Amino acid sequence: MADEVIIERDGQVGILRLNRPDKLNALDLATMQKLLEALERFDEDPDIRCMLLAGSERAFAAGADINDMADASMVEMYHRNQFARWERIRRVRKPIVAAISGFTLGGGCELMMHCDIVIASETARIGQPEINIGIMPGAGGTQRLTRAIGKARAMDLVLSGRMISAQEAFEAGLVSRIVPVEHFYEEALRVCRELCAKSPLALRLAKEAVLKAHELSLSEGLEYERKLFYMLFATEDQKEGMRAFLEKRPPVFVGR
Ligand code: COA
Fold first, then answer.
1. DSSP string, 107-129
2. In terms of domains, do 24 and 119 share one?
3. Which distant-in-sequence residues (6+ apart) come within 8 Å of 54 by Cβ?
4. Are residues 18 and 140 located together in one domain of the fold?
5. What is the pLDDT, as a whole number, of residue 198?
6. Are residues 172 and 229 in the same domain?
């Protein structure tokens, strides 16, 4: 049986590629489990500094697999507790860069929103179409989307189920950069390699601080940020980074 998720390494980048081309990378339970396990393994691996999550050119992921859910009862869905996996993805500490292209829908859009930097091909089509099949988003779509792009636009996507273009998503603040389709994967990998040259501890704490902005009030968030900022002065990487700047040479960060 083909692997639902192709797992590779490129230097210090852990690469995960969704691989259900016939199903537009629909996220069935097996795929979600493999994805989660691979992300957690990379997160614990001292030789990996960031992760790249990609689908194909035609689809990043067209949502949760509808076959898994079509006949499920409420009680089955409740006991399945599939969102526990998403909670664990949320707790991954290393940066995750998403390379998205084509259909990025439903759970695919929610997965994209769990990533930290989103490199989108100009062909990406993004949306939360659950309303069209009689349900609604369940892996954070109503919450993260609203925080990312505001109530008016989130309500439009969630209630109409329409797809937006990469350009519209970029203007709304949902994706980080748009690149021509022939370069989107390479560009995401280039971004990952760039992150690998930074201090791994600074990257993780910076990610943590930005994510807290969704959860805390401004004054709590500023306090939180300040504490993480001070913490970095306990690292060798801070000393190395500043010394290298003053000595006009590139820094070598070791993650201590
Ligand atoms: N779950 C299960 N299978 C899916 C799927 C999903 N979310 N999205 C696509 N597929 C499957 C299709 O059933 C089809 O399989 P088949 O060839 O065995 O019939 C295959 O992927 C290709 O999809 P198809 O619909 O033929 O491609 P298209 O280009 O005509 O349309 C989409 C593409 C994305 C617009 C359409 O597939 C779609 O609307 N998918 C569902 C999106 C959705 O509602 N996601 C949220 C789920 S909670």
1. HHHHHHHHSSEEEEETT-EEE-G
2. yes
3. 15, 16, 17, 18, 60, 98, 99, 100, 185, 188
4. yes
5. 97
6. no
What is the reported pTM?
0.96
- Please state the domain count of the chain: 2
- Give residue-wise pLDDT tens across range 76-124: 999 999 999 999 999 999 999 999 999 999 999 999 999 999 999 999 9
Contact residues of ligand 1, CB 6 A cut-off: 23-24, 26, 62-67, 103, 105-106, 129-130, 132-133
* Index of the ligand 1 atom closest to the CA of residue 23: 21
In a domain, 87, yes or no: yes
Residue 218 has pLDDT above 90, yes or no: yes
Nearest protein Cα to ligand 1, atom 38: 62
Tokens 């519209």 — which residue?
168
Q: How far apart are CA 255 and CA 238, in angstroms?
A: 10
Question: Residue 99 belongs to a domain with what CATH number?
Answer: 3.90.226.10
Q: Please give the positions annotated as active site.
A: 64, 107, 110, 130
pLDDT digits (tens, 9 = 90+) for 42-51: 999 999 999 9
Segments forming the whole domain that contains residue 242:
200-246
Find the 9 Cα to ligand 1 centroid distance in Å.
30
